Amino acid sequence: MASREDILTNKIFLCAVLPLVKTIAMDDPKLAKKFEHAHAVIQVSAKDPDAPEGKFATHYVVNSGEWLCHTDKVADNAHIELEFKSIEQMNAFFKGKIGPSTLPKMKGVTKKPAVFAAFMMTLLKMSSMLTATVAPEAEEDKKLLVKCYFYLLSSGISTLNKNGHEEIHRWTLSSPDRVYAWAVDGYPDISAYIRIKAGKSKAGRGVYKRALPFFTMRFDCLDSALGILMGTADMLEFTKDSKLIMDGAPEFGAQIGDYMMKVGDYAR
Q1: Burial of 207 (0-12, 13-18, 19+ CB in 10 A)
Q2: Regions of the chain where pLDDT drops below 70
Q3: Which of 138, 157, 179, 246 is deepest in the core (most CB within 10 A)?
């Protein structure tokens, strides 16, 4: 039986990491071209005896380059599937422990070989981006990486809340209706947020437009954002130098920073 930590880790991969495949496949021109004529349902799953359908999964519906991502939902009609024997095996694989004991069963490879190859290329791209220790040089690559980090963190915090992470759920339970956001000056399309209220949470992509966020972690440029997101810069120094701007009380910045690290710990 999977431990509580294994389950939370798996939910992070299903609901926060794997959705980045869609972002990368649609934003990277070279990868987007490979899916221009694709029509397929692609699934990543992990078997589990406690799951209602015998497995937990996230799947994508791809139609001519347009993607829909269904997090933590099993598809009955997947054309392509990476099926892991257990959630522990899936967790190990996505944490980089790749070997004979962690490789998934690959279904549908011969039916749609080109789509399968393109999907695997996208997975590898995602893995290389999230495990990189040095920021990319090209601006488009920087934009995509910051966007992926923002999406991962907002969805990850919300996922941990929804799955009963004790500290984060306690934080949302005692909170009034508030929005916490991440942003980079001059790049309104690179932003994300999480809205919380009385134990509930919802992650969003883009700018929250209904009201001014209660707190925003804002960066002066892409390089500053990557310094913090990749863990190569000091948050206090960046705040002092106005590379990181806390639009809100500093104590909320420290709190969100702590939850960001918790998501990173589960995803690494």
Answers
A1: middle
A2: none
A3: 157
